[in-house]
Every structure is written in C-alpha cells, then in structure tokens.
Amino acid sequence: MKRFSRRPGALLAIALMLASLLGAAIAPSHALAEDAGYSADQPPALSSTRALLIERETGTTLYEMGADERAYPASITKVMTALLVLENADLDDEVTVEEHDLDEVTWDSSVADLMAGDTLTVRDLLACLLVPSGNDASYVLARYVGGGDWHAFVDMMNQRAAELGCTDTHFVNPCGLHDDNHYSTARDLVLIFEEALKYPEFVEIAGSSTWDIPQTGENEARTLENTDTLLDPESPVYMGDTIVASKTGSTYDAGRCLISEAQRDGRTLVGVVLGAPMEEDADGVAGSFYDMRELIEWGFGAWRTGEVVRLGDVVGSVDVTLSSDGDKVDAAATTTIFATVPADTTIDDLTLTPSWSGSIQAPVSEGRELGEVSVALGERQLGTVSAGAAEGMSLSIPAFVDWWITNNPTSVMAILAVCVVALLVVIGLVAVLRFRARRRSRRQVATPQRRAVARSVEASRLRPPAQSRGKRGGGHGRHL
C-alpha cells in the first residue's frame, strides 16, 4: 500500500520552498508556554487577518477579529460540499469517476489522484474530499449530487448557505479555487461547519489523520494523509485527541485558512482563522496551525463554562418592615445561570440588577418569591434568575400595632368613638344593675317585717276583743 501525498505543480512547489526558507529565517517563535496562566483579556497574537473562536454549548464568542469581513475561504468551501453530500446522498452508493469530472481541476490543485474509471463509495469520495482536500473529488461529488451538473450543485450550495443564516457568502465552485466572486466570512463559515458537525460521518472523516482507500480501477490501494498538521502525530503542533474535526484551505489570494472543532474536559470550541501567511517555518508548519493551536489553548485555559450563579447564591436583599428578626432578608437564587465566562470570574464580578424596589412587610416565609435578578458581566448579559427569601422573618406585634395606628388615623378615631360609646353603655348597664341590686336587697330586708305586721293584723281581725265577751256574758237573762 503506497502513501499518498499532494501533487502540487512544479512552480508552486518551488515558490513554496523559497517562501518556507524565507519564513524560517524571519518567522517569530511559536513556542507554546505550558501553564502560561492564560487571561481572557489577553488573547494570543495571531498571524491571520480574520479569526473567530466560539464555545459551542453556550454559543459564546470568545474571540473575534474581522469575523464579519468578506474573505476567500479556499478549501474550507469543501465543508459545504460535504454537508450537501451528507444531506442528499447514500454514503454506500458507488460512483464512477468520469473524464469530464476532472476538466475543472487545475494544475496546482490539491488532489486525491482520482482517475476516470475509478469506482468509489460516496463515503470514500468524502474522504478524498476532506482528508487530502481533493479538488477532483469535489467535482465528482458535485456532479453526482447535482443531477449530472456541478453548476446545479453550486446553486444548491448558495441556497443552503442562505438557509443556514449566512449573510455574506457566495460560492462559484465546489472546491474553493479562487474566484473574486467566491467568498464568505469567518462567522458564516462557522455556521456551515457547525451544521456539518451534526453528522458523525463528517466528524469521523474530517477528524482522521489518515484514511485507507481500497483499489479503485487502475489505482492501487492507498492511504490518504490529512492536510491538517494539528492531526499529525509527527508534527510539533500535534494536539492529540483535542482536535475532533477540521478542514484546511490555502490559495495565494486566500492565504492559509483553517477551521477546527476541539474538545477537552467536556467543553467544545470551534475556531476559524483566515488569511494567515503562506510561508512555513523550519518545521514545515504554517502560521494558521500555530494560530489555531494558540487560540484553542487560550480558549480552554482562559475561559470556563458552567454555573456562574448556583441555587442558593445570594443575589441581593430586600428591605423588610414590621419584623422582629431584622430589617432585611437575603434574596437567594432559585434558578441557575449556565454560561461561558473568564476562568477567574466569581459572583462578585457580576452585576446583579433586581426587578423589585422598595420593601416588603413581615411576616416573610422562607422561599417566598421575591422577583427576578438580571445578571451581567460587564456589558454582556448572561441571563436572569428567580430569587426567593433565604430565611423566614417574623412579624413584630408591637411594631404592627404602631404602624397600623400611624397609617390609619381615621379608623383609630372611629374605634375610639366606638370604645367610648361601649364604655358608656357598660357604665350604664353597671349602674342599672347596681340600682336593681340595691332595690332587691331592700326588699329582701323589709319582707320579714311586713310579714310579721301582716300576721299581727290578721290575728287581730280574727280574735274577738276580751271585753266584748265579758259584757255579753253578764246579761244571761236577756232574750231577744
């Protein structure tokens, strides 16, 4: 099995050799300091003219330089080509290379050495497209997916770019060969790349340092080598398993270009650099690879992704009145904020703006909903959290009575009037009861005496007087 390498034209090879020698003499050192104490406000200096680095999970932009400026994407174009193939073709289909597929392949193109009559699966053609960046494979796939016309495929590319939200992208061919009307931006290229990353097959192929191709027609079995030095174990900028997928690009007009996805410790970054110098250093490494490595290391070292506000974090306080437990209650977060922030960020660095104003009245139960708190880091809004009372606050009865009297004077006068009337009624009732009691007492004292007199009178009425009886007894002989 023979090893595959790109087949540059003779003039290009000579030019690159001279540029490499010149670059080795004047290029600055790109040594990466280990444990360099990265700082979010000190991004690396880049040789590229445009760049963008984002954190995929939160969509946070960590670094950008000319990210919306128009640039030539070179072979990063092939990410869109691969995306359309993944969306519209069966990877196990077999495709035969036709003679006219190679008509547009220029002498200075990077190729996969395809020949007319070769029959490959769509999967292997994607490997020829992405690993050695084969322009020949791009036209074969474009013709196959485009219904026999690669121009129709380019129309599909532009339509798909618009659907993805690209705002300044236009394709003229499926490979990225220079054309003044073939352009994009760093931000648009990230949109396309992220869509392609949704396909495991793309990640597998674009993240492989090599890819074995079986014999195809007159071509012997061979091993394709990736043009990304970050994937090369023998390269001084090799990043091991950190690089998940990538695509290179280079033309004299575009400069060196590279787009990559990197993962570490559960975090994922996507970066793109455009317009780096063409020359390579003494190790055969171009500036785009150093730029990408330094951006990725800085992104992982200077930033962190996680909960910047956790459940129970104190995010403010609320004034409380009429409480025997104090005059404030802490507002504790009842929801969280997940964000990407500089690695040394603490909650003290955040700007917390509550939705409430003024005070609340005791009693306050623990967990009582207080409102929302807007959370910002500098001018960047991170989100909002809900907040509740961190503890309960009891009501002070004396304070409540004093407050009520102070704030309800009319009601107080009415109550006082009612109290006076009630008091007078009570006094009147007491006087009547006392009067009746005295009368009853007098009656109870007089009754025995009256009864004695009554009995005496009654007795006197019933008993005849003694003298009357005697006189009547002395006249025995009188008859009537």
From TrEMBL:
Which InterPro entries does the UniProt record give? Answer: Beta-lactam/transpept-like, Peniciliin-bd_prot_C_sf, Peptidase_S11, Peptidase_S11_C, Peptidase_S11_C_sf, Peptidase_S11_N
Describe the location of the Peptidase S11 D-alanyl-D-alanine carboxypeptidase A N-terminal domain by residue ranges: 41-277
- Where does the signal peptide begin and end? 1-33
The segments labelled Disordered in the record are 446-480
Q: Where is the composition biased (Low complexity)?
A: 446-463
The Peptidase S11 D-Ala-D-Ala carboxypeptidase A C-terminal domain is annotated at 306-387
- Function, as annotated: Removes C-terminal D-alanyl residues from sugar-peptide cell wall precursors.
What does the sequence similarity comment in the record state about its family? Belongs to the peptidase S11 family.
Q: What is this protein called?
A: serine-type D-Ala-D-Ala carboxypeptidase
Please name the source species: Candidatus Olsenella stercoravium
Lineage of origin: Bacteria, Bacillati, Actinomycetota, Coriobacteriia, Coriobacteriales
